[in-house]
Amino acid sequence: MTRGTNINPLDGRYYEKTKILSSYFSEQALMKYRVMMEVKYLIALSLSGKVGLRKFSQGEVKMLTDLYEKFDESSYEKIKTFETTTNHDVKAVEYFIKEKIEKTSLKDSIEWVHFALTSEDTNNISYALILSDSLGQVIIPEINKIITELNNLAKKYKDLPMLARTHGQPATPTTFGKEMKVFAQRLGRVINHLEKQKILAKLNGASGNYNAHMVAYPKVDWLKFSKDFVANLNVKREISIELNYFTTQIEPHDSYVEVFDKLKQVNNILIDFNQDMWRYISDGWVMQKPKDGEVGSSTMPHKINPIDFENSEGNLGIANALFEFFARKLPVSRLQRDLSDSTVERSFGTAFGHSLLAYVSLLKGLGKIFVNENKIKEELSSHPEIIAEAIQTVLRRENYPIPYEALKELTRGKEVTTDDFAKFIDGLKVSPKIKSELKKTTPLSYTGLASKLAGK
Known about the structure:
Blueprint: H1 15-18, H2 22-25, H3 27-48, H4 58-69, H5 73-86, H6 89-101, H7 119-156, E1 161-166, E2 169-175, H8 176-195, E3 199-201, H9 211-216, H10 222-232, E4 241-243, H11 254-282, E5 286-288, H12 307-329, H13 340-345, H14 348-366, E6 369-371, H15 373-381, H16 388-397, H17 403-411, H18 418-426, H19 432-439, H20 450-455
Parallel strand pairs: 3-4
Antiparallel strand pairs: 1-2, 5-6
Helix pairs in contact: 3-4, 3-6, 3-7, 5-6, 7-8, 7-14, 8-11, 11-12, 12-14, 16-17
């Protein structure tokens, strides 16, 4: 099958932009993570000295870790061959490991593979590792690139005055840099929470009570063993995994939902940003650099469309639709478990893929823009009515009677000019000093602390 015949565009049209995630969310990657979990568990049993399994030599540990560190397509195909008979993917992983060690010095340890576990012990830890690694190594770094770009724009244009719009109408000025800083700070706050997020995992058997563990070795502190095992998974991982003591056969997935909700929040912020950038481009405040050979329209030669921001917006919407479904579905399982979560988990990569594609597209869009400073200043200067707020506020300070109403009468629903304001100020019953103060206020100067905020 070629990329042109793939149903999913992430594996077709957009493959080059999203292929990095195949190391985490492909079926082959899932099998690799399952082998990793089973191997780490087997080694932990051996090194614990608490059960009948002998202590492995360093060479034997290396032989086992090679099963996932050197996991390749042939390894995957072998597991799939087992699965054609078992019709059970985790059991196929177990048989794969057993076959790999049955002709080695570890042959006496074969029946310790998957000891006292249920398949969901293997699965939930595998997915916890997948989520931790994909977040820490791909998703969060990509979001941080966006934050860096926004902070660069905030710094560069912190002093560029710009007309604000509230309810779509001309409003009190801001600066272009400060508006970029708003998005950088919003994203940074969510990423800060996401980096502290714990992904919960279980290692407690078929009904969550260590039944099989205890019947075999009742004197072993299995709670401590599980806690230590999960804690050791965090070596070199930025997103931590933490033991959940209280589960049914499945880990309830509540921490997954917490992760997805944070990603959904990031994506909502970026949808907001994309729509603002689209408007700035539409108004000519932000321009896009032409690229040789590219066309913007099949019939209108002049066009440079904001397709990167539009592409980003669309993919963020798809990702969030999936994240919202995950949040509704995953915490719900009949009694001690049903299997409906399993097929849903296999779609995690689709949500992450559309998110990553959106981040890449947005960054591409930011790399093509430049700010039309003259246009922004001209637009701001053409709306002198926005200094009505400044004038009425100073008059309030001076205890001038009904200043708001006076400015409302002058400006509301009318086109006013700088001369209109000058005549209005000249007619005020205030001191020459106050009149001079009021006349110094212009749309270009009336930006408050916007520059300072953008530079923080």
